[in-house]
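Thread: "does anyone have the structure for this chain?"

Original post by V.I.:
We have the sequence but no experimental structure in hand. Need at least a predicted one for the grant figures.
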Amino acid sequence: MSPLTIRHRDTATGPVLHVAGDLDFDQAPELRGRLDQLPLSPGQCLVLDLSGLEFCDSSGITALLAARQHALAADADIVLAAVPANLLRVLTLVGLDQVFTLRPDPSAAS
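Reply from O.Q.:
Generated one for you, tokens below.
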């Protein structure tokens, strides 16, 4: 099990959260807590850079959906960037690739 790390940086278009490690039942609340503290303004774009994500279970996917809700409530957009292949496969199987905007890397997110 890899500990979850979340690094935050602000850009001209909105915040970028780099999520690394395991996003699972034990650690998903940490992401949700960070999102609850993250101010978003209308028109901004929240980017979740998942390039360092090693594992994501259903609790992690629920946390990603909570991030989407947080963005939508603020009238902001959300992008999942650099989604690992194994997670991309799951998102595609359950149709969430149609719900999230997916980008190959964080710099292509805006």
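V.I.: this helps a lot. Strands lie at 5-11, 14-23, 45-56, 77-81, 101-103.
O.Q.: and The chain has a mean pLDDT of 95.
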